Amino acid sequence: MNRIENALSTLQDKKEKAFITYITAGLPDYGKTKEIIKAQEKAGTDIIELGIPFSDPVADGPVIQAASYEAIQGGANLEKTFALMKEMRDEGVEIPIVFMMYYNTVLHYGLEKFVKECGSCGVDGLIIPDLPLEEQEEIKEFLDREDKTILIELVSPVSKDRIPKILENARGFVYCVSSMGVTGQEASFHREVMNYLADVKKQSKIPVMMGFGIRTAEDVRPMKDIIDGAIVGSHFITLMREHNFDPQTAADYCSTFKKELNVL
Length: 264
Description:
Elements (H helix, E strand, L loop, with lengths): L2 H11 L4 E7 L5 H14 L3 E5 L10 H12 L4 H13 L6 E4 L2 H7 L1 H11 L3 E3 L9 H10 L3 E2 L1 E3 L7 H5 L6 E4 L15 H11 L4 E4 L17 E4 L1 H9 L4 H15 L3
Parallel strand pairs: 1-2, 1-9, 2-3, 3-4, 4-5, 6-7, 7-8, 8-9
């Protein structure tokens, strides 16, 4: 098991739900990114999605699109993010970290080289929303060979009959997109979301996480008996902007959300 699987196994033993956040690498700069990650780790965040800035993040809404653009304008890129990962792991940061990114970035870097670099600098997982199941074979071959970084599968309310196939060899957790469209929408979830989440949970051998449109723990109260955790992205970016990327604000939000998530 890698860090993600170990962390989630521990949470299941304690009967706790996982809290996962998303931040954009290099926003507003890499120094702040590191401070915010360390603050979240101390505050009890379970897993962090670290977004790799990309010019055309098709699964993301205006908030993360803007964050990605600004990070790129500030010089953020994959190489610098790998360097950040090495620094953090050398400094004792142990929180599981997942790269949320788009496949063109991987292809441009080179598949084998990318996977090896992920393994050597402590990237625990990958979320690649524009890489469908049918096109995952090549990268999975390299990931399986290194056996350090895992690919996190996504499902959505329209996955339906594809869910068993998607989950068949899934590892870590399954990322359930809670609403149609892009990230950052209000918590007006797909009308069939309860049935959809219950269906995924019934078929999944690994923890089920819900993302897209979540701001507070209260947003997931109706699903508390189904999901194993919640993911907050756009709202967290907005919160950071409003407080000048203050690490203490990040810590306070994360500790509060984590506590409330487990007393729903």
